[in-house]
Fold this protein.
Amino acid sequence: MKINPINFFKRELDYLPPHFVNTVVKCNEAELEKMRQWVYQTCTGRYSVTKDIIYVDGSNARSVFVLGFENPSDLTLFALSGMFNTKPIN
């Protein structure tokens, strides 16, 4: 097993820094925990999971989770895994 030295510090942030690459994830609370575990075990850099509201069709509001990564390669790995339903933020 390869040890990640970043794991000795807090890798999951409570906010989304402006330099992180991010994506919107459509999931419920149970899927969110599965996603957090997958990201922690598979990816190498810092990441954030935040809740946001998006507007669909100008009037309908919807609550979504935004997943951000410090390393763009972690986002690529996450997207290519196909395990979760993602949508890029414009």
